[in-house]
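Page 42, continued from yesterday. The earlier attempt failed because a stray header line got pasted into the input along with the sequence. Redoing it now with the clean sequence only.
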Amino acid sequence: MKLSDVWFTAISETDDNQMVVISGRDDIAAFVESGKFKERVEIYWKYTGGTNGMPADEEARLMEKVQIALKQAMERDKLAILTGVYTGAGERTWVFYTRNVPAFGEKLNQALASFDRLPLDIYTEVDPQWEEYKDMYDMKESEE
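This time it went through. Structure tokens are written below.
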């Protein structure tokens, strides 16, 4: 399976009408259908956003560095795939689908070891049908 780096962007709103920018990965049907990535990991970074709910420039740059480190570490041997990034309303969320949550945790600690302590919360869930990804992908189709 070859992992593409094709992404789409969609705009959504929270229940209280704050904008959320969604970046979703496209062209990964082979991974969805493989049945190998059954667990979803969501990494949350809460921040103090401006009036538009987006992170300040300096924090956004740090988030980008963290995202690059995570993506490279997880995707190097296809332990996990970054499928979506949500930014807005004072929070950035990275969504990965992984083969193995404990190995993901170890790799996450290694990938972020060079950073100062980050304000991250992590949630995991068994999601063999990729329900979160499919819900996000529906947003792409509604934008078209």
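Notes: The mean pLDDT is 94.
Reminder to self: strip header lines before submitting.
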